[in-house]
């Protein structure tokens, strides 16, 4: 049990490191807060909440993995190397894919509701 709490502590340390060092992570957290607040205002259904939470977790997990890849690459290859570039660019692409999916999911979830409020129908 003590080991479990130690591991949770290491994971929290990792999250704090990513938030402190990655400006994109700060942006993802602000976007997640906005999405959760909007979700509460829109009174999402249970399934919609599950989708929203999974999408947010997916983006943040991808950014955490990207941070880990960047750290390992910087450690293993301080000098420029095509493989280091491939690793960093591919990890960044993973974040981009999840972020685009999150934006599309957000538009599908909130778009019609916001459109209603704004007066489109
Ligand atoms: N060791 C390296 N060898 C070759 N190309 C690299 C190397 N390090 C970084 N790059 C290239 O420069 C880009 C920017 O690298 P950087 O280390 O600034 O990471 P980043 O993705 O911009 O992260 P952040 O903006 O969060 O600091 C990488 O995506 C990659 O294309």
Brief sketch in words of this structure:
By secondary structure, this protein is an all-alpha fold. The protein is 89% helix and 0% strand.
Please supply descriptive tags for the structure shown above.
Diacylglycerol kinase; DAGK_sf; binds adenosine-5'-triphosphate; mainly alpha; ATP-binding; Helix Hairpins; 4 helices; 121 residues
* Regions with little confidence, pLDDT below 50 for 5+ residues: none
| Biggest β-sheet description | none
Tell me which ligands are bound.
Answer: adenosine-5'-triphosphate
Structural class computed from helices and strand pairing: mainly alpha
* CATH topology (fold) name: Helix Hairpins
Number of helices: 4
Do you know the CATH architecture?
Orthogonal Bundle
Average pLDDT score:
96
Tell me the total number of β-strands: 0
Order of helices and strands: HHHH
Task: Give the total of domains.
Answer: 1
Determine Rg (CA atoms, Å).
18 Å
Membrane topology: Multi-pass membrane protein
Transmembrane segments: 50-69, 90-111
Protein name: Diacylglycerol kinase
InterPro entries: DAGK, DAGK_sf, UDPK
Layout of strands and helices, then pairs:
Blueprint: H1 2-21, H2 23-42, H3 46-76, H4 82-118
The chain binds adenosine-5'-triphosphate (ATP).
């Amino acid at each position: 049990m003590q080991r479990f709490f130690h591991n949770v502590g290491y994971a929290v340390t990792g999250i704090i490191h990513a938030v402190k060092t990655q400006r994109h992570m700060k942006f993802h957290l602000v976007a997640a807060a906005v999405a959760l607040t909007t979700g509460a205002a829109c009174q999402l259904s249970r399934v919609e909440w599950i989708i929203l939470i999974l999408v947010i977790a997916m983006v943040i997990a991808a950014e955490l993995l990207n941070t880990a890849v960047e750290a390992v690459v910087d450690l293993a290859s301080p000098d420029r190397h095509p493989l280091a570039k491939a690793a960093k660019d591919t990890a960044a692409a993973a974040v981009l894919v999840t972020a685009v999916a999150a934006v599309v999911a957000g538009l599908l979830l909130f778009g019609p509701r916001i459109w209603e409020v704004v007066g489109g129908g």
